[in-house]
Amino acid sequence: MELDELTARLIDRYQHGMPLCAEPYVEMAQDLGCSERELMACLQRLELAGALSRIGPVFDHCRAGASTLAALAVPAERLEQVAARISRYPEVNHNYAREHHYNLWFVLTGPNRRHLEQILDELEKDTGLIPLDLPMLTAYRIDLGFALGVHP
Known about the structure:
Largest sheet: 4 strands, antiparallel
Helix content: 25-40%
CATH architecture of the largest domain: 2-Layer Sandwich
CATH topology of the largest domain: Alpha-Beta Plaits
CATH class of the largest domain: Alpha Beta
Keywords: DNA-binding, Lyase
GO molecular function, one term: DNA binding
Radius of gyration: 19 Å
EC number: 4.1.1.111
Oligomer: single chain
Strand content: 15-25%
Shape: elongated
Number of helices: 6
Structural class: alpha+beta
Order of helices and strands: HHHHEHEEHE
Number of strands: 4
Domain Siroheme decarboxylase NirL-like HTH: 9-50
Family: Belongs to the Ahb/Nir family.
């Protein structure tokens, strides 16, 4: 996907630090020198191109409850079905396929560790697959972003 100037500036400026206000898209549009309608059209193009999957906050799970990285070894013919089942949980913020014995990975976030264990137990009963549960022991904040160098 080739990026027009507005798209490049939007990505460069708002990979981090979305405005915390009642109308963040209005404020973003003003900052970028465009209309809210143009901004929303830009975001829609990114989504339709598969370049944008989510807009939202990233929480420090230790302050908000509990979190774990989990994986399943799913037979290839069941991968889409099991991924769709996992995605129905609001506690799952994303899941993705990998080329490995454990080929479906997902992150669970909830109010406490027991809640996460209940979901993993439920998934095991529903799918017949045993989840690999990898709770974080040490947090490393990498603040990943890719500066395009187009925003002053």
